[in-house]
């Protein structure tokens, strides 16, 4: 890239950040949680039609990524490098980043069902633990189970041959609407929830999607996946 091209790219990137509405959107995403198009429009205090053009600009400059899930469109910072750049600019401006405050009822926030798989804080931690242990890895928009994951999940009692025979997506990042970070959806997500229910690690609430993590579950999830859960 020659000097003129670099200058033009830098100017375009700076221009995308410089607009007050877009900068408010970007700063609200610094906590690592995704937000819907409606929420970001509200943060920027602009209408949905006006926000659409801003989203396009941010996407074109590679500052955010879009996750489409059903009728919802979630936006998230594109990378840790983007976050670090914004944090540096905020530091120069002397402005603290806003914290994420979910409005989800506490009974549903820790753990609940999302269709046939687990959602909530527990599920997001489990998703992150599987990635950190290299039991799953990204493959296009889905996840594949690695050789290490095949062995480890098999030892836990998950029948991966049966999981893979199902006529559905094996595993994918499902955006969690309370945590605004992904949990594991698909056949693997369903198998993990089934395992946790059968082992007595979680129990269902009557007439609710909420799940309770049992004392046994806190201990077993820590031992099996390295998860640190608070006893409630």
Could you explain the architecture of this structure?
50% of the residues lie in helices and 18% in strands. A hairpin with a 2-residue loop joins β4 and β5. It is elongated, with a radius of gyration of 20 Å. It has two domains: 3-93, Winged helix-like DNA-binding domain superfamily/Winged helix DNA-binding domain (Arc Repressor Mutant, subunit A, Orthogonal Bundle); 106-225, no CATH class. The strands form five sheets. The chain has a three-stranded antiparallel beta sheet. The mean pLDDT is 89. It is of the alpha+beta class. It has helices spanning 3-18, 20-28, 37-44, 48-60, 80-93, 106-109, 121-132, 147-156, 160-165, 186-198, 215-225, and strands at residues 35-36, 64-69, 72-77, 112-114, 117-119, 136-139, 142-145, 172-175, 182-185, 202-204, 211-213.
Supply database-style keywords.
single chain; 232 residues; alpha+beta; Arc Repressor Mutant, subunit A; 2 domains; 3-stranded antiparallel beta sheet; 11 helices; 11 strands; 18% strand; elongated
Give the helix proportion (percent range): 40-55%
Number of strands: 11
Q: Roughly what is the average pLDDT, rounded to an integer?
A: 89
SSE pattern, N- to C-terminal? HHEHHEEHHEEHEEHHEEHEEH
What's the helix and strand layout?
Layout: H1 3-18, H2 20-28, E1 35-36, H3 37-44, H4 48-60, E2 64-69, E3 72-77, H5 80-93, H6 106-109, E4 112-114, E5 117-119, H7 121-132, E6 136-139, E7 142-145, H8 147-156, H9 160-165, E8 172-175, E9 182-185, H10 186-198, E10 202-204, E11 211-213, H11 215-225
Antiparallel strand pairs: 1-3, 2-3, 4-5, 6-7, 8-9, 10-11
Helix pairs in contact: 2-3, 3-4
């Amino acid at each position: 890239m020659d000097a003129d091209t670099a200058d033009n790219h830098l100017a375009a990137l700076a221009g995308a950040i410089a607009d007050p509405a877009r900068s408010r959107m970007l700063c609200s995403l610094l906590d690592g949680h995704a937000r819907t198009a409606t929420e970001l429009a509200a943060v920027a205090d602009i209408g949905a039609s006006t926000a659409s053009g801003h989203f396009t600009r941010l996407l074109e400059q590679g500052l955010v990524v879009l996750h489409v899930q059903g009728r919802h469109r979630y936006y998230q910072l594109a990378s840790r490098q983007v976050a670090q750049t914004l944090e540096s600019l905020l530091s120069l401006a002397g402005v603290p980043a806003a914290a994420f405050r979910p409005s989800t009822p506490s009974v549903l926030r820790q753990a609940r069902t999302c269709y046939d798989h687990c959602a909530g804080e527990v599920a997001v931690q489990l998703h992150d633990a599987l990635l950190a242990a290299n039991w799953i890895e990204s493959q296009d928009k889905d996840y594949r189970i690695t050789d290490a994951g095949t062995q480890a999940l098999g030892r836990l009692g998950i029948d991966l041959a049966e999981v893979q025979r199902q006529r559905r997506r094996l595993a994918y990042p499902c955006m969690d609407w309370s945590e605004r970070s992904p949990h594991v959806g698909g056949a693997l997500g369903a198998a993990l929830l089934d395992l946790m229910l059968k082992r007595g690690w979680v129990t269902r609430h009557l007439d609710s999607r909420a799940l309770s993590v049992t004392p046994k579950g806190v201990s077993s999830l820590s031992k099996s996946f390295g998860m640190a859960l608070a006893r409630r």
